[in-house]
Design brief:
With about 170 residues, the chain is mainly β. Helices cover about 10% and strands about 45% of the residues.
Length: about 170
């Protein structure tokens, strides 16, 4: 009887020690890292809501294009994923209006990928540090819809936070 009681006490103590030794893993549920872009009027410098249709695409390493944002209308800001392997993201912004006029602008974001480890039991995330941003307008004309006037980095650290990283100043030609 004494051996059985000793055995039960040892099992209870061992179970208690093991339960206390376990840690809770707080891995983030949403570990998608996206760069947040905000739209501003180039004249007033005030936030603006885009009336035209915006499609954003990129060209992958194999030469195929990928649509990252498809026909967004009425936005003030949006978030796009960033590449992990290259030092720059090249984005094609296609703006179209209801009169079937369109403009294509290229945005080039130079960035550095920074591995981020929350916990050893969690998968690694890739944060980014923005180095530079520039916009190239391909078809500026009097009949073009809104085009990109200029672009600036407002917060160089791209993390889980949905905070404005890049400010795009838009120019309306009408």
């Amino acid at each position: 009887m004494f051996n059985r009681l000793t055995f039960l006490v040892k099992v209870a103590v061992t179970s208690l020690v093991l339960l206390c030794a376990c840690t809770s893993i707080d891995c983030p549920l949403d570990n998608v890292v996206e760069c947040t872009y905000a739209l501003y009027d180039s004249k007033s410098k005030a936030p603006m809501q885009l009336a035209d249709t915006l499609t954003v695409s990129t060209v992958k390493a194999d030469g195929a294009d990928t649509i990252l944002l498809n026909r967004l209308v009425g936005c003030r800001d949006f978030a796009l994923p960033m590449r992990h392997v290259s030092g720059a993201d090249t984005l094609l912004f296609r703006l179209s209006n209801t009169w079937q006029q369109h403009a294509v602008d290229t945005v080039i974001i130079a960035q550095e990928a920074v591995p981020y480890y929350e916990d050893l039991d969690c998968p690694a995330s890739i944060f980014h540090t923005l180095i530079s941003a520039k916009a190239i307008s391909h078809q500026p004309s009097a009949t073009s819809p809104v085009t990109i006037d200029s672009i600036i980095i407002t917060r160089p650290q791209v993390t889980y936070d949905n905070i404005e990283n890049i400010r795009i100043y838009m120019h309306a030609s009408y």
